[in-house]
Each structure stands twice: as C-alpha cells, then as structure tokens.
TrEMBL record:
Signal peptide: none annotated. GO terms for molecular function: carboxypeptidase activity. Residues 691-733 are annotated as: Disordered. Residues 73-258 form the Glycosyl transferase family domain. Residues 364-670 form the Penicillin-binding protein transpeptidase domain. PANTHER family: BINDING PROTEIN TRANSPEPTIDASE, PUTATIVE-RELATED, PEPTIDOGLYCAN GLYCOSYLTRANSFERASE. InterPro entries: Beta-lactam/transpept-like (IPR012338), Glyco_trans_51 (IPR001264), Glycosyltr_51/Transpeptidase (IPR050396), Lysozyme-like_dom_sf (IPR023346), PBP_transglycosylase (IPR036950), PCN-bd_Tpept (IPR001460). It comes from Micromonospora vinacea. It catalyses: [GlcNAc-(1->4)-Mur2Ac(oyl-L-Ala-gamma-D-Glu-L-Lys-D-Ala-D-Ala)](n)-di-trans,octa-cis-undecaprenyl diphosphate + beta-D-GlcNAc-(1->4)-Mur2Ac(oyl-L-Ala-gamma-D-Glu-L-Lys-D-Ala-D-Ala)-di-trans,octa-cis-undecaprenyl diphosphate = [GlcNAc-(1->4)-Mur2Ac(oyl-L-Ala-gamma-D-Glu-L-Lys-D-Ala-D-Ala)](n+1)-di-trans,octa-cis-undecaprenyl diphosphate + di-trans,octa-cis-undecaprenyl diphosphate + H(+); Preferential cleavage: (Ac)2-L-Lys-D-Ala-|-D-Ala. Also transpeptidation of peptidyl-alanyl moieties that are N-acyl substituents of D-alanine. Keywords: Carboxypeptidase, Glycosyltransferase, Hydrolase, Multifunctional enzyme, Protease, Transferase. Transmembrane segments: none annotated. Residues 696-733 have a biased composition (Basic and acidic residues). This is Membrane peptidoglycan carboxypeptidase.
Amino acid sequence: MAAPRSPLSRLFTVLLAGVLAGLVLAVAALPGNLLLGLTARSALGSYAALPASLKTPATPQRSYLYANDGKTLITTFYDVNRTDVPLSEIAPVMRQAIVAAEDRRFYDHGGADLRGLARALVANVKGGGTEQGGSTLTMQYVRNVLKTDPTRTAEERAAATDPTVGRKIQEIRYASALDKSLGKDEILDRYLNIAYFGSGAYGIAAASQRYFGKPPSQLTLGESAVLAGLVQSPDAYSPISGDKDAALARRSYVLDSMVATNAITAAQAAQAKAEPLALHPTAQPNGCTAVSQGHDDWGYFCDYLRQWWLAQPAFGATVAEREQALRSGGYTVVTSLDPKVQATAQQQATKVYGYDNKRALPIAAVQPGTGRVLAMAVNRHYSLADNPAGQANYPNTVNPLISGGASVDGYQAGSTFKLFTMLAALESGRTLSTGFDAPAKLPTRYPAEGPGSCDGHWCPANANPDWMDGYRMMWDGFGRSVNTYFVWLAEQVGQDKVVQMAQRLGITFRADSDAAFAKNNAANWGSFTLGVAATTPLDLANAYATVAAEGTYCTPVPVVSVTGADGTKVPVGQPSCKRVLDADVARAATDAARCPVGQQSAFGQCNGGTATGVNDILDGRPVAGKTGSSEENSTETFVGFTPQVAVAGIAANPDDPADSVGSAVQTKVIDAVARVIATAVKGQPEKAFVAPSRELAGDARRPVERPAVPERRQDPTTEDPRSALQRWLDRRG
C-alpha cells in the first residue's frame, strides 16, 4: 500500500492542478489523435535540446570478472547493482506486465498521458488517502535518468525529484521529446534497465537474479507480475525485505491489469495467482571479499587485478576515476586466472600447510611469452573476518602475500637467485663450462665479523661439502647448488651486474634496505647471489618465465580482455613484452637449469640435482628449475618452468622471518610446485627447450681456476652475516 501523502505533496498537486486546469478541461473534450498532436506541439521541447544523458544514458552498471574461460564468474564490482540487457532478452510477459502495472496507455500516448495526468490530478485534489501518480513510463524514465546521472552534480540529481510545478512540466516536455524521437520499444527497454525494483536491484536483469536467481528471459508470468508490482513502492512490496502479503496483493493487481489490457486471459491470471511465491534470492557478489562461495582463494588474484586496474590510464585520469569506472562502468573482464591451475595451486598450498598454520606457502603461476598470471594461491582465506585470539594473519587476511605490496616486502628465496649470477656471467662472455674448484668455504673481499667470517671477511660455505665441493662448471654448480662456486662467479662478473640482471627480469626491491643497497652499494652486495633480498612468488615466477621465453620479459598482467558496456574492446591487457636477454644466453641458462630437476642438459653435463623428483612428476616432460634455502632454512623455495608455464612457491612465516620453516619442508614445496606445473601443461603438446649454441656451452676441458685458501677458517655460513631477524627489522626501519 502506498504511503499517505505529505502536506508538501498535497500542496504540489493542488498547484499543478491549478496550472493545468485549463488543459484538463480541454483534454476531456478532445479526440485521441488530436490530443496526441497537441501533446507533441505543446511539449515545448525538442530532442536536440534534451540533456545528453537522456539521449545516451550513462547509467551506472556493475562490472563482471570472469576466469580465462569467459564463463566462470569470479566476482562483480558495483555501486549500483545494474546490468543492461536488450529488450529481446526480456521475457514478453515481463514487458506486458510492466506496461499493465505502470502505464496501460503506453502505446497510445505521446510520452505524457494528459488524460491519465488529469485523472490523477482530480483524484489527488479530492483526496482519499492515497496519491495517484499519473506519470507515464516515459516520464518515470526521465526522472530516473536525471536523478542517477553520474555526470550531473548532487544538487542537479536531487532537483530531478523536487516537488515543484516547474520540474513536472520539464519532465513532461522531456518525455514528449523522447517519444517523438525514440520508438516505444526503445523507451521500454531503457525503462526496464533503469527502474529500481528494491533490495538493491536496479534494472530488470539485476532484479530477476536478485529475486528469482535467473535471467530475465526466463521469467514466468507470475514472477513477472511480482517484479512489475515492485516498481511503485520497491521497499513496501519487496518480498525479501518487505511485506510478502503486500507483494502478493500487488501481484494480483498487476495480473488483473494484464487481463484488462488483453495481454493475458482471466484463466491465466487465476492460475498465476494460485502459484506460491517461489523466491530464490541471490545476492550479487560485490568486490574481492565476496567472491564465489567456496572460492575465497580467488580473492588474492582479484585484489591483484584491482591494483592493476587502478594503475591503467585507460580507465580514468586519477585513481578515484578508475575505481569509479570499475564499480559503475559495466565492464566485462575476462581475466587470465585458470580455474584448474588455481585449484591445484590452492590444493597444494593447503596440503603443505593448513589454513590455521602460521607458516604459509604462497604460489604463483605465470605464462611465459605473455606474462599472464594463471594462478595465485596461499593457505589463507581472503577475508576481512576476525582471526582467533593470538593469530595475526591466519586463517583470514587480505594482505598481498603472493604478489607483494602494502606491508608485504616478500621473502628470501635463497639459491634461486643464482640464476641471475649465471645469466650475468653468460652475458659477459663466459660459457657454461666455466670451471672452478669450489672449496667448502670461500674467503671473499667483503668485510664481515663474527660467525661466518674468515679473518675479518665474509666466508660463505657449501651446505653439503661432500656432495658440493670440487671442480664445478655452471651445469653441476647450478644442479648441486654450490654456494662457493656462484659467489666466486659473481665476484668475477661483478655483483652490480648480478643485481642489475635481477632487476631486468622484474625482481622488485620492496624492502627499503634492499632498495638502498641495490641503488647505492650493489657492487659490494656479496651475498646477493645467495638470495638474501626479499622477493615474491609472482616476481620470481615471472623472472624464470623470462628465461623460459628465451629472454623475452613480459610485464605480469591479470587479464585477457576488457570489454565496455557498449561492447567495445578496451585497449588494455595485451602482453607488454620486450627482449632483455639474448636468446642464446637464455637457452644456456635453461640448459643448466635442467640439472636440478633430474633431467640432462643438451651437452650431458648434469650429474646431480636438488629436486630430481620433478622429472618423475612431469613424466620426463622437458622441465627446468631451481631450489632455494635461505639462512637457517628460514624459507624454502622452488621455481620450475617449461616453455608453457613458470611456477614459484616460497614456504615462509609472513609475520615472523625468524621462524625457520626448516629443511624438511623443501621436498613438499618441490612436490607442490611440480604438481601445479603438471596441471598447467596437461593437454598441451609437449614442447622441448632449444639447446644453446656450442659456442656458449664452451669447452669442458678448460683450465681450472683455483682460489687462494686462507690457513685459518671458521664456521661456515651461506648467507649475509646479519641475522634474518635483523634484516627484517632493518627493512622496516
């Protein structure tokens, strides 16, 4: 039931009645066709003079995020829950119901129904407890557009519903001008896409989903009558949040009106009235914390996409404008998220550590040659829900544990950084066969005190001397992860060249202390090759993807395509790639990277690896990779890649770097990453790595270079002399 009229409303109707009194008296005596002509001539307005929003409505619409199949919905973004649909996708009974409920003479009048308005004015002046509107669908459409137009000021939007005679006359003028220029179906289509149906649903598509969980093309007669009845008083008649009995009574009114307009028969109306109110309320997800039920792990990818979106000038000049575009622009975003790869990554991350474990295994998967991010998983719920007492960021958090940013600098990735030393060496002219008799401990030129120093200099050691010490080349130095070999190699090349190589491949120094060292003292960053700088699984996976793509670096991107509400493709999200390495250098590094995973190089030089089980999991499919253990096993890392995918996982405690995950978890991390790779390449043709040139492989019989070994040695260390905790504190000032 409509609410009683306010004194202001009654005054408005009396005033308008006075202004139009002469018109009302004339209307009663005029034939219909003459009336229509008079209406058109008296509209005192033209289509050309209409506000732009009435010609091309800028109604806010929600944006949809889909997985890379274009079908799996991740979430939606909106300020106003609305999605426009063409009239052809709205059930005919719904179109008939709205006309019968709101404007029976819709197809007969010229936009403003003067007879209906006169009837309503007379009834309202006489009183009777309820107010009659008299507004046509076209007039209602005008009012809805002007009060929601995002291009108008707040004051202008508020004026669209002012109870003034001038506003009503302007509404009539605009409606008449629209009717002269647009077909009735076009006006009906626009009206159905902007009307408010209650419970947060704007437009028929949102309303159909909100109340009945189906698209508007599938609405039944009874359902259509319910929705059509909501428009007059959305809150009062809402069967979800309002009065169900009132909703049923209003449904009956609409059905009777449809009989009166000959849209349906009395028998059809009776049958529809007898149907129970079968609601299937469906709440439309809004934002990254409202992803599909059971898939809250998708939230981390969603958040990464949102951060990417806010950096794209195509969506606005400022961050605020880009945010508004996402929430009201009606975009269809097909992301790069692969549901199968994501599911495996999430399963493997939670297999290593449960949701309630303070330690985490963030995993990222990237496609070489495009930079498209296929998966981002971690054993956390992406949620703002409170955590149990004493638990900082688990099981719930929205921190970017996989991609980094905000308060997340990343984690030490250990010996995976040896890749950058090898690349810098190859680029400088050295070959894969560069040999060195690697000692158990190596004195360096970098000053250091305390454990791990040799006579006041940093003295890194091999983790397993019996297996690592001795004459090594890049193949087996990388395969067995020989610290002293790579520290020596970095000294020959120049530590600054190694740091620059990492940056070229996309490693970002988010920790202030790391960024300062890289900028001001890279040449003396002796421990860099052992992975003491903080990084993230996403950065690391993309760096290795650059090698997999034979030296082509692609900026990580979370989308495949973005389409505007009008169906136009937005020119964003295409791969942004550039060559940062000579292809032969990348091929040579890949050849050595086959040693750690139990495969053989093109030159037969692999003789042991730290992750040989990967070969079995991939069934011998060409694969490469590298393990990494940081000081005291604070973190354990594995990166693996094929020509089609690169995947990285880092086991760490995001809240406490002093909490060592331990060496025992390394095999689990290796297994987890390898199984994500297996899922990503399943069904794809097997693709071999291209062997490097013999020139870059070199001659394995080259003379051995031996270091000067000091007489006095102390306990070995494989890392920067500072403790992991101290470095963590340094990064945070």
